[in-house]
């Protein structure tokens, strides 16, 4: 049809294809981030209000049972639901609408040249885009890649794309330490810095894909025939049902199953004491030396380890560790968070290392379980854990020691 051909000239040409793609994906991210703020706060208040009735139901149980169940398991699961559900309920329907309208199949067509240069497949671009909503969903989406070798490359590199669970912490760190100006200027500068981090993740995805395709996953990039479907009006009802049930609820359910035992572990770490200090404090002290080597500290590193079930709880764990709290607590005042972090030695270099390690670190437990299910191999699951972690350690180490060297030079001069 003539209208389809005119649209394809706009959406798939070398001149306009990439700008339109970035604009549409940027719009999806903006609507997701902005639209999820108010529902997340409202859902958090509702779930927090249920803590006391739940505690009342356990009135006859020992204090440690009440603490582990209410302050540990329930509060952690509630935090994950409040942070994950609204953005996923916005992102996945928007993503599915683009798919149903016939646009998403055009994205691999635009990106195939870039991925072929990296020894991968253009369809990996779709799995990367799904990773912005949830890396576990992105890994599952790798089934659309026919070549087993290229599918494995896409699975191993999907975690370089930040999921919506990492966005709140990234935005907080950027706003507190790097955003310039105030009002609209501050929002624009924060958005540009966040876009820069995302583009860094995309660049590293290409670099690692190329490295894998020339080493342990060596092979010739496959060619694929892509039949572009006609553009059509999306079926909104079907899209909502499919995206909410098949993607949002499925991913959220897996995340909650992983977060529940993590909440109990976090509560035990902060409430069980050995030799005058909590297990949390002892572990943080033990991790402090290796963490300092890459510009972080023991509390930050322990926050990432305990936040393994869900990236959403990493910053709350860090703040809890710094304030010597005994349970996760929501801190909505950015100035209070800045005060806590700077009082514990955070500088712009620390915040930058935090952002880099947040972008490049091991996948969450839900994603790793999905990787094992898709690959059927603990070897590749371990590789998916180790590759992004190694990249994060390397980049954080470079930034930290460059900052140390620069400070030393400035001191001499």
Strand order of the largest sheet: 1-2
Largest sheet: 2 strands, antiparallel
Strand content: under 5%
The helix-and-strand class reads mainly alpha
What's the layout of helices and strands?
Blueprint: H1 2-11, H2 17-49, H3 51-57, H4 63-101, H5 106-117, H6 124-133, H7 135-141, H8 148-157, H9 167-177, H10 184-213, H11 236-271, E1 273-274, E2 277-278, H12 279-293, H13 298-306, H14 314-322, H15 334-343, H16 348-359, H17 365-375, H18 378-412
Antiparallel strand pairs: 1-2
Overall description:
Helices cover 74% and strands 1% of the residues. By secondary structure, the chain is mostly helical. A two-stranded antiparallel ribbon has the order 1-2. Helix 8 packs across helix 18 and helix 17 packs across helix 18.
Describe this structure in a few short sentences.
With about 425 residues, the chain is mainly alpha-helical. The chain is built from 18 helices and two strands. Helix content is about 75%, strand content about 0%.
